[in-house]
Amino acid sequence: EIVTPKYDYAFDFSEGLATVQKGDKWGFIDKTGKEIIKPQYQITSSFSEGLAAIQKNDKWGFIDKTGKEVIGAKYEIVHEFSEGFAAISVNKKYGFIDKTGKEIISPKYYFAYEFSDGLAKVQKDEKWGFVNKKGEVELMTEYSDIKPFSNGFAAVCDGKKWGYINKNNTVVIDFEFNEAGSFNNSGIAAVKKPAWKFIQLVK
Asked: Which of 10, 75, 188, 194 is 20 to 30 Å apart from 69, CA to CA?
């Protein structure tokens, strides 16, 4: 027994700290069970790139591992930091901030997700596409759904089947899968056709 049971709920450790719930509040403990950040928030995320999202007074911000609120709780929704940036929502529009809280990409998207492979998945005017870290649209697609880039490829759906495109928006794996996941660091992705199997990139 590493941590004495005294919390109502707990998540896995991430970057050395675990999210725990006591009553209706959330905080963090280390691997010895020491309470590093006492339960005080409505909800928290796990730590990612040294910061964790926290909710108080129904707004979201970010704290560091000492519990210091480094980005004030003022957003409707936030995503975890990835590649130095986090998606945030203001007035039901999504943009991106850096770790200082500086707005890097102004809120203008209907949806936005984490950066992966240098690009972030966004939706605007009912179309899915990808933006870079300067806020420039790298490509806007006609696909019904897309998944984040990984290893230079992104899974995309034509409305019926899934395939893969590269960063030039060229189809590199035909639309033949019922479902398709992103490639992991080893270049392997899970696909369904009709049963689940794995495919691997060939270098």
From this structure: 10
**What would the pLDDT profile of 82-97 be if each residue is shown by its tens digit?**
999 999 999 999 999 9
- Supply the pTM of this predicted model: 0.88
Record the tokens describing residue 17, joined without a space. Answer: 């700290």
Half-sphere exposure of 80 (CA within 13 A, CB side): 12
User: Do the Cβ atoms of 61 and 52 come closer than 8 Å?
Assistant: no
**Nearest Cα to 111, choosing from 130, 98, 124?**
124
d(CA 45, CA 87): 14
Please give the helix or strand (H or E) that residue 160 lies within, else none: none
Distances (CA, A) of 109 to 90, 112, 126, 135, 163: 10, 6, 10, 11, 25
Cα distances from 120 to residues 90, 158, 196, in angstroms, run 18, 20, 27
φ and ψ at residue 202, rounded to 5 degrees: -105, 120
Tell which residue, 65, 68, 106, 100, has the closest CA to residue 87.
Answer: 106
| pLDDT score at 202 | 78
Query: What tokens does 32 get?
Result: 């010895």
Q: State whether the Cα torsion 162-168-170-172 is positive or negative.
A: negative
Amino acid at 100: T
Residue with tokens 């069970």: 33
Q: How many CA atoms lie within 13 A of 191 on its CB side?
A: 23
The CA–CA distances, whole Å, from 146 to 82, 142, 165, 196 equal 18, 10, 10, 19
